[in-house]
Amino acid sequence: MNAHAETREGADAPFYLPQRDEVAVFEAAARNDLPVLLKGPTGCGKTRFVTHMAARLGRPLYTVACHDDLSASDLIGRYLLKGGETVWVDGPLTRAVREGAICYLDEVVEARKDVTVVLHPLTDDRRILPIDRTGEELEAAPGFMLVASYNPGYQNILKTLKPSTRQRFVAMEFDFPPPEQERAIVVQESGIDERRAALLVRLAGKLRALKGQDLEEGVSTRLVVYAATLVAGGMDLNRAISVAMIEPLTDDADIKRGLADLVVAVLG
Ligand SMILES: Nc1ncnc2c1ncn2[C@@H]1O[C@H](COP(=O)(O)OP(=O)(O)OP(=O)(O)O)[C@@H](O)[C@H]1O
């Protein structure tokens, strides 16, 4: 089970550079007990945003990376054998409901269908979590908030949320930051100089223009930060671009050659 909890109360909020009014929208949703859905490509800042907001609001955060094996019990909890006794162990969603925390379901479309059913009574004004196994019906503690994200891109054409699920969330669309902001993020995250950050960001823009033709998904801000981190640590610029911004995008030798040509054109 791929879940971890972090209690961030009192902790400094991690760096997040806002793109639009997402901070205000999230705060308004939090004030009014509304669940939030973040849509956008991989590595564009959704998780960082949620971590930042949890710290800002002083609420603990439970993050669950959803996958196609994730079941309702992984979220809610299960009976486990401990020292010869059977004990109930809360899952991350139940813990968040009890503690008034934020529960963040990353890539929620990957989760099995029985998971979305669990979310329904939690995401309307009932705010309850029925736990069939224990017979409990938990009322969400003040502060509980459900946040989910998904990537509506190419590979998810067949995987999407049912209207009855998606129409329970306030939703915001995220995308890669505009060049100037992405440069600031890359500098901040990696410690690289402005000039080379600008170069990497310009290259990322060119690579993103190939999305849909040659590439399934444009290069993420995460990968640009990786490349910059390697360069800041002393790696040759071309090598860092190759391992962090080209190889992760495709396995196709022809496409890779095309991308390498693009790099030469951008770097001059
Ligand atoms: N607005 C931003 N402010 C600060 N850092 C950002 C921002 N956008 C992107 N980043 C950087 O990009 C990295 C990847 O972002 P993040 O992990 O939030 O992606 P994501 O959208 O949640 O991706 P996934 O859907 O794959 O989980 C972050 O670790 C951070 O370095």
Overview of the molecule:
The protein has 268 residues and is an alpha/beta fold. The protein is built from eleven helices and ten strands. The protein has helices spanning 22-31, 46-57, 72-76, 92-99, 113-119, 163-166, 179-190, 194-208, 221-232, 237-246, 253-267, and strands at 3-6, 36-39, 61-65, 77-82, 85-90, 102-106, 128-131, 136-139, 145-150, 170-173. The strands form three sheets. Strands 1-3-6-9-2-10 form a six-stranded mixed sheet. β4 and β5 form a beta hairpin. The longest helix has 15 residues, at 194-208. The radius of gyration is 21 Å and the shape is elongated. It starts with a strand and ends with a helix. Bound molecules: adenosine-5'-triphosphate. The site of adenosine-5'-triphosphate has 20 residues, from α2, α7 and α9. Pfam families: AAA_5 (PF07728), CbbQ_C (PF08406). This is CbbQ/NirQ/NorQ/GpvN family protein. Residues 35-169 form the ATPase dynein-related AAA domain.
